[in-house]
## 1
Amino acid sequence: CYEVPGTRDYSPKQMAIRERVFNAIITCFKRHGAEVIDTPVFELKETLTGKYGEDSKLIYDLKDQGGELLSLRYDLTVPFARYLAMNKITNIKRYHIAKVYRRDNPAMTRGRYREFYQCDFDIAGQFDPMIPDAECLKIVHEILSDLQLGDFLIKVNDRRILDGMFAVCGVPDSKFRTICSSVDKLDKMPWEEVRSEMVGEKGLSPEAADHIGEYVQLHGGLDLIEQLLQDPKLSQNKLAKEGLGDMKLLFEYLTLFGITGKISFDLSLARGLDYYTGVIFEAVLLQPENDHVEEPVSVGSVAGGGRYDGLVGMFDPKGRKVPCVGVSIGIERIFSILEQRVEASEEKIRTTETQVLVASAQKKLLEERLKLISELWNAGIKAEVLYKKNPKLLNQLQYCEDTGIPLVAIVGEQELKDGVVKLRVVATREEVNVRRESLVEEIRMRTSRP
Amino acid sequence: CYEVPGTRDYSPKQMAIRERVFNAIITCFKRHGAEVIDTPVFELKETLTGKYGEDSKLIYDLKDQGGELLSLRYDLTVPFARYLAMNKITNIKRYHIAKVYRRDNPAMTRGRYREFYQCDFDIAGQFDPMIPDAECLKIVHEILSDLQLGDFLIKVNDRRILDGMFAVCGVPDSKFRTICSSVDKLDKMPWEEVRSEMVGEKGLSPEAADHIGEYVQLHGGLDLIEQLLQDPKLSQNKLAKEGLGDMKLLFEYLTLFGITGKISFDLSLARGLDYYTGVIFEAVLLQPENDHVEEPVSVGSVAGGGRYDGLVGMFDPKGRKVPCVGVSIGIERIFSILEQRVEASEEKIRTTETQVLVASAQKKLLEERLKLISELWNAGIKAEVLYKKNPKLLNQLQYCEDTGIPLVAIVGEQELKDGVVKLRVVATREEVNVRRESLVEEIRMRTSRP
């Protein structure tokens, strides 16, 4: 077998579904005024070093064949930060849709791959607090609503609140990152397991772990923020206080956007990547839309992101910072859900846009078919012809049925003499003779969308 | 520096130009009824082995980090053949636009990169001779005409004619491939150098080389085909005769398509890849369109392709063949030409589609701006807002000038009281008060394309 584990080909039908998802996402990104950029699939290995914490082991390296050491990009965020620093850009709102690579254990039934698309929207620049951050959440809300994937929830937290929480719980500074990684596993593991990892593997005191345990079960909205701002310990911690203040501001903006109904301030949300510095968030689908599907689709995170104010500075020779916040939509799970839905609905998806098949009723008319289709192509009509010298009319009509081509332009000896073409509507079997000079206009009229 | 040699980032402006090129190409591929597929960026190393002849040394391998040995794709043709065999597809017309990778010496000024796009259209299936082949040439003709790149020429030859020619010139069977590689260099080297490579490095007899030298200077149209069909030696060679017969048929179809004016049957065209079995072709730009450009753009091959009837069978366990013919458009040179043309013309290219900026004339109106923009986004209007609590009106208007946003929706205290929004046309400075409930309709009307 020639298949690479953890990857897949997209068939024409799958591509049609994928295009729908991309269109919804790109339409939203453009609605918010984003420009688009592209970067190479590989980066210098050193560009990716030290950006992903414990996940760095999943980076794909290229073989050393002479020249620079290269790695495949792990996400689109680090290449974006590298791009900003290299081009001294301090202010941009851009999207980028491209494949990223992770040497993960493929669990493809759960929609996880080693090669997968990310659709990223980021805002870079020195701005007033939480306005761009709120827009990122609005974007996630718009896209997940547009795609009609069923109910969803966007969890929000802040690295500063987490770090403040770790501090007041008695976690030593040196253990912040690794304890943060443990908290990040709470969406897949019960608290008891996470606690024993903290205490057993990572050497945290049981008291500190239990203290964390109390906080990470909290989730809510503005009321919880207010409550924590009064928390005797957290409110004494500078970082936590800053984070909570910004969280309050964020919720005020989200209220203006009318989307707080699907937002949850959740102290258990951690996100593993090293580069986040402020707000972090993650969107999860709450239940699969599988009324018509036999096998339930497993659900999970479909979008995530946050603020990373220090990353660009890591690539600048003078360390100049450019504050950034952004969101990444993961389309693989979304695509799996929509694909299963299409399968179940027996919806017929066309994989071409062909308007007309140029056919002949008699033999020896290949030349006439080629002349006619050339006229149609030159006029911008989407047209096909069977690659046979003498195809049977029935086979030509069957091809239209199979592929959804709505019209057939039939040339025969009589039609050629009369200067007409017989135009057949596949769905109704209606046939009309159309003068050859009017054919293009007639096809356009009959295939224009209402 | 963090740049990977031989690659480049695309800025928003470059992306806008790239999108134009892609649109022209995709529109053409769809006009010819093609479906679209996608495959992973890497393949098993063995999938690529033995497909590219002397160019195999340019393949990028991934590091062995456990698991399978992988290589980055070198073109889109081999992955396509692998896809057909794996899925037992015997009949498809598809396009595929994606990046491919070659460890070449980057000569970026000449538009050559180690990572570059190919835009491939291929027809697979058992069909009557030369009909799909002719369509591939029609497609190249349409795309190069649409893009208005100046004059171009499509050179055509056939591997069977080359092999027949080698045979009648006295080249031993075992040297066919390597002598073919030498002939392939004729577009970059004079005949004398190619001849000395054949005789000196590759051990061909001087007589055989001189004999080849006579053939490879020939180029023409139907007349040349007829002449060679009468050639006392070639006409006795089975392969050459087959190739010349098909070439004649091809030119008949190209005459029906009305495109022979830009097609040249050229015996010096070889193309290096191992997998071609029949017709081969290559399109070259004849002169750069650089009337307005100071630095002349170097020109060269912008499209190539041919027939490869044996490739799919190499991936099928039982060796079942699927005849294929296809064309690959290389956009990097095309893109360089168009980019220089845009630079020279001082054409202003918008990199966003934003219809309106939501602005305020006074301070303390951030909340009102966010409420209004949320209404616009929800109605599908492309809108932006400056991420400042109290931006100056002048700065907001300047932002529109800089980015080409045509309208400004201004909220002020008076407007809020009156239930209106002040809509300003950036180009004319005209201002009208629009009732809030009519704003969406008014923006749509004023920004719809004529």
## 2
Amino acid sequence: MNAEEAAKFEELLNPRGIAIIGATENPMSGGYSFIRAYLTSTYPQDKIYPINPKRNEVFGLKAYPNLQSIPYPVDYAIIGIPKEIILETLESCVEKGVKLVHIFTAGFSELVGYKEEGKKLEQAMSQITKGKLRILGPNCMGIYIPKNGLVLAAELPVGLENSGKIAFVSQSGAFTHIFTIMSHYNGLKFSKMFSYGNGIDINCPEILEYLNEHDSDTEIIFQYLEGFRDKKTAKRYYKVLKNLKKPLILLKGGLTEAGSRVTMSHTSSLAGTIEIYNSLIKQMGIIEVHSLQEALDALKLFYFCKPYPKGNRVGLIGGGGGNSVMIADIFARAGLKVPNLDRETESQIQSWIGEQFINGTISCNPIDLNAAGFDNRILKKVIKAFDDSPQIDVLVIFENIDFLIGFAKKMKLEGLSKGFYRFFVRLKKKLKKNIIIISVPVIKEADVLAEAFEVEKLLFGAEIPVMNSNEGTANALAKLIQYTEFIKKNNL
Amino acid sequence: MNAEEAAKFEELLNPRGIAIIGATENPMSGGYSFIRAYLTSTYPQDKIYPINPKRNEVFGLKAYPNLQSIPYPVDYAIIGIPKEIILETLESCVEKGVKLVHIFTAGFSELVGYKEEGKKLEQAMSQITKGKLRILGPNCMGIYIPKNGLVLAAELPVGLENSGKIAFVSQSGAFTHIFTIMSHYNGLKFSKMFSYGNGIDINCPEILEYLNEHDSDTEIIFQYLEGFRDKKTAKRYYKVLKNLKKPLILLKGGLTEAGSRVTMSHTSSLAGTIEIYNSLIKQMGIIEVHSLQEALDALKLFYFCKPYPKGNRVGLIGGGGGNSVMIADIFARAGLKVPNLDRETESQIQSWIGEQFINGTISCNPIDLNAAGFDNRILKKVIKAFDDSPQIDVLVIFENIDFLIGFAKKMKLEGLSKGFYRFFVRLKKKLKKNIIIISVPVIKEADVLAEAFEVEKLLFGAEIPVMNSNEGTANALAKLIQYTEFIKKNNL
């Protein structure tokens, strides 16, 4: 993809007007969710054109019987009508001069019992549109670009304040919606998101190439991939991987026999063999994940830990002896080092903890501060000691935020948790090393959680990743460090 | 442990009166949390005796200057005073005829820089009390028996309605508190819980022996173990394991070098080698977990899936194509089978889904019902087909409860989620096979979560395990099936 092609691709993502073909107020219909989506977006409402021959208005927006009756430019069309009228709809898109068509409609080459007919229909769709407009889909959710207000579901975070540096390219439509929501509550923001489904025209290699080489808004790429329609697409994909300039977190579906059986019905894709995949992962420095949860954990560390840690030696700071042992085990098992501090630092820490708190604490790495952890002066000194220690590359604090809030409420010690997390926000700026907080969820009470989420927001705002699983954090951190080693080794 | 010894042990757990030595209203003091704990328990308030020579009352309860001034029997004493006066306190316990002493106070043989003195102090404590009373601790949280109202923290679930069949034996004190709360929000209830810390008298082998062979209230045992004080204790432990009659879920701390370094400071225990441990796990059919989260997942399946599944062939039913692929991969990777249904069942399912819904669905195993999943008549037929299928041993439904509730609110389809989960409660009674629901958390909004937790409670009440992680469920299910195979193979 050269600069001109990239500019052309980018033009597709900045439509002057959007038609929603099949827009309706009937929630059982495909066009419903997209009109609802755009009603709750920042995209200019006067440039959204519902197409519905039976209605004058849809949700208060003027409706048009067809594309041709819209007296304004329409660059982007979202199609939610039955496949039986897909060909004539595409013809009218060509006629109107639409640049990009997103086909939400499903039931083409991926549908069991209809695969052959579906394939033929897809070929006819390509023929009608080739060289005239670009197609995203069919069987997909389309595009989400918070900066422009392009959305794929209702009430997504939009606007500049909700724009970030992560791109997500997904062969699954539902993943884009659910992962946007998961990410939103985990402090992550997106540059661009693409769901391309059966990918009969625009497919993941082209999108990745654009994101990797030409999109300055994107720093990290997350991809959900099931497989490829044909060898040509696969080849282009491998070519893109060879020139990776940005971290690519890859969730590859269909690596087991059970999973690959489904990819054929889902997006009409051959999942490929695990051997090819494994060698790719190794050679290209791709970051492998096996679930959205793992992807979320990895993205949080890649997003917030800047610059990346220099090595794999972790300093663990928290409360609870059993917790300390368990977490040390988990981090060591993930291939990370939990080294001893030097004797001097250890006895320094002991002296800071002092007589008042010493019983029940453990002054090594991991350190169990017990009640001393709530004395901010002690905690600050300890964290600074870990930050200064030449034995440590990255700091991990383990503390159950919700449990602490609930406990403080229960024990009528409301002051306890309040200042605790603001302390980290202030401290963060003074630290040389990355600091990660692990807060495993314990309590399920709405009032406690509301408070806990406020705390998390505060921490995300200060670029401190709050993680919700010990194993998840250890594994994600191991991936981050592996990646930095790959980069170093290959002089990237 | 013979019947007489068991009866004697059990007597310790049914105290006629409880003294809290060091009870105070000062939250920074050790005795504070236990008096708060008993004030919020069902244990008869008139049989709780705060000991505090400086006060006439503690939180409205009559305080006594010492044990001797209590004119009633005291069978159980909780000690939260400084270790400097531990010996004279134990002497007065002996004098009063106390049967069981729980020493919360820490800073004995586990404290770095005090290990030798601590050991000597512990020996003196044993000498004073040997043959006269039993000690739990020091450096521990004591006992939680919801049935009797014995508690180790404030506002724990107590009473018969909060009593269940799980026992937890923990070398970590903090784990008992936090795990009680985690479990409470996950539908799990306990028979008995023991935190024994340094275990200078009562230690895990004795507790396990009692639970395994004599306690009819306990069906499943969960243990957090760091190590043993001496070879005698280790030997007795192995003897108990050889006679295991109940499933033992074991979280072994200190299996890595990093973790084992901490166990010495935490509970003064040698963690033992991983080789001995691994051979034990295999030979005894012990269920191994590596974190509280894994323990929770395993316990939920062992607790709710009765009778245990007959084999490892999983039927996956849910929504979302990418989700279906990902979850099939995760279950297959955990060593479970996700078999094909027979052609006949598949085409039956396709016919039930029908023309209206067929686009975007996948009618194999895993099955992606898409919107058809919200038509209860279709869903019921599909689940029954999986329940009847000779290819399937256990049913797993994947559906994000919070996301569904949030989505329904957002799309103004409030009716959508409401009836959905009551449907499962009704259906559960008619199924031959176990049904497990996986609901990975997505949304962090208090109002949505409050509703989601109500749904979870409803499902737990119907003995349907609601799991919060795909990987966690797959791994826990693999453990459950491994255990049933072990039982079968060994004719247990």
## 3
Amino acid sequence: ARPRVGYYYTGKSPYEVVASKIRRYRVKDLHSRPVVVSVETTVYDALITLFLEDVGTLFVVREGGFLEGVVSRKDFLKLAFGGQDFRSVPVSVIMTRRPHVVTTTPEESVWEAARKIVIHEVDALPVVEPVASGQDLLVVGRFSKTNVTRLFVEMGEGR
Amino acid sequence: ARPRVGYYYTGKSPYEVVASKIRRYRVKDLHSRPVVVSVETTVYDALITLFLEDVGTLFVVREGGFLEGVVSRKDFLKLAFGGQDFRSVPVSVIMTRRPHVVTTTPEESVWEAARKIVIHEVDALPVVEPVASGQDLLVVGRFSKTNVTRLFVEMGEGR
């Protein structure tokens, strides 16, 4: 007998249906635009950017938009806590540097990127594309817990 | 004919299967323990708690564990940015106060709580239980984007 319209018969358990749907999304489907500052920027100016753009994480790049590091609210707070002057310190002093920065790519699954966020206990990942010339990574986006939370809400709406 | 074991036949589209599964989780199934400070705490001591507990949001309570406000990394950074002395200011000066604090409850769906996080642009919600005696809210947990991200990762594993 043919199933009625709307019926559904795949041999998968509900858990598998959910898992396979979750794993189908790609980072490129939902990442945000990156907010970047130059390695020469002072902590003070970087903090202004953080507030104006209202993000929790900045990506630090050199000329051409290539990733050098990542700086988070927590890094800024550590400096403030130590009583250091924001104006005299370049952002490169407080950032996490490559190769210690965890990254994702546009083609990676959202599930895999979310796993990296959980495992490495970070709020956001730079979305990068390798450049033909070698080790350089071009920053093309920002993928965060906010993107995952928004997707979760949309999926709960049946979209 | 009976479906084979593992088969599945409910009249729901895959989107509906995912949506109904997502909406079934309750906040009490996965929230974290709350990290709280007293309203009399100085910003300096609150910041120490923030670092020691490694959370992004503290809940500010009065005696008995009743919610008075919420303070986030962003609130601390604003103060640091203004150059104010951390030691002299009580945390109540920089916190978001009730009734402006968005809350959730143990019985609320994770989906609804995640929606509140997205709509109100916050990182975490205090999980509260109303107290018989009136307007007071007892803080019993912390629900954040991290909880949503962890659940998303687990669901993608087919659990």
